[in-house]
Amino acid sequence: MIKQFFILINIISIFFYQLFFSSDVTVKQTLPSTIAPNGEVTVSFTITKGDVAGFAMLKQTIPLGFIVEPIENRGATFSFKDQIVKYIWMSLPQDNEFTISYKLKNVSQDAGNYSLDGKFSYLSDNEKQNIDIPTANFSVSSGEELPQIVNETETETEEPTLTPKTEIATLSVERTIDKISENKFKVSLAISKQNVDGFAKLIETIPAEFTGLQDKSQGGIFSFENGEVKLLWLAIPTQDNFTASYFIETTSANGSKTISGIFSYLEGEETKKYTINSSSFNVDFNNEIAENTTTEEIEETSLQEKVANENAKNSDNTNKKKEENKTPITTTPAPETGITYKVQVGAFRENIVVDKFKKKFNLKENINLENHEGWTKLTTGSFNEYKSARNKRNAVRNNVKTAFVTAYNKGNRITVQEALMVSNQKWLK
């Protein structure tokens, strides 16, 4: 009996909870079977992650009367709020197996039986996977009685442990579609939420002729496949209101198109789905262009006929005025002030060192930087006449084959065709 007594006092009950997925992820939870009044113990988790990387989260509900302090986080963001413990990794440790732990303190509970449950969530092929950690039972000793190991089967007759009341989640999503160019659009989703946290997923079904491009993911993982844009959050932003966005682009679409979507989130442990109202938009894109022609070069060439017609129309109007007023016109109209032309030599999504770029292409010209539609664009020169910009473009193409002319109205970027028509200038090859 004495031997059993000391075994019971010193024994540590180790609970192993393992559910196997294709990536062989396992979780082992270790904690003592008893905790003294006003005492504290260490709870640890050994996670074997296999080939899983990237986002992950471990979440546990702590009984009332206990508090938690972190010990070892292994790169995770730790939080303890409303009796919920969370470890969130933006990127899991590289080690195949690692251990995290926290200190569990008894601040107000007397003798009795309590329990811990939890969940480990991770991403596999951009889809959320869960390992549910079965309930682990432990007891608070009175200090007089012998500590007892509580078996899982005994929990059926125990009084339920009080847990915080789950607040009802509410969510709304509004979509707007803004035209960036003839073939490119920005899709923005204004998300308003209350009592929504943890995992969330947005799936947008876009027209078949379009490609999805990343913009502002607000911490989510962006992917595009089989006509679906996905934003996946292991931990959705904490703000009640935020906006996520992405771009769609086409080389062949025309006419009226529609985007639909679904937003999934957790309410307690139950997955909820919110259907986002469909949005329609019109595409008027002329894609009959030569191969290997850039979008900007299209701006210079695709509407040449319209420019010629506009110039001819202006000429006819001028001749009519001559006849009406019988006053000969000896000068051509002056170009519209505020219209300028530059030559673009490069565009980059990331930061670019101008000196390295100039050295690579052996450029002597001064290079200017401008931010436009999420790109850092490099330009040179500033001309009031399109002809001068065209000549500069031809000279620069000796070094940068893809150089082309861009146009501005009082500093705002417009198409070359618009600039030519506003300034009453002629397009030249």
Task: Write a short abstract of this structure.
By secondary structure, the chain is an alpha+beta fold. The protein has helices spanning about 1-10, 295-300, 305-325, 355-360, 385-395, 415-425; strands spanning about 15, 25-30, 35, 40-50, 55-60, 65-70, 75-80, 85-90, 95-105, 110-125, 125-140, 170-180, 185-195, 200-205, 210-215, 220-225, 230-235, 240-250, 255-265, 270-285, 340-350, 370, 375-385, 405-410, 410-415.
| Number of beta strands | 25
Biggest sheet, strands in spatial order?
3-11-10-5-8-7
Rg of Cα set: 33 Å
Overall average pLDDT: 77
Uncertain spans, ≥5 residues at pLDDT below 50? 5-23, 144-165, 287-308, 321-336
Number of distinct helices = 6
Q: What percent of residues adopt helix (DSSP H or I)? A: 10-25%
- State the separation between the terminal residues, measured CA to CA: 102 Å
Instruction: Report the portion of residues in β strands.
Output: over 45%
Briefly note the structural class of the backbone: alpha+beta
Largest sheet, strands/sense/barrel: 6 strands, mixed
Corresponding CATH architecture of the largest domain: Sandwich
CATH topology of the largest domain: Immunoglobulin-like
Q: Domain count, please report it.
A: 3
CATH class of the largest domain: Mainly Beta
The shape is elongated
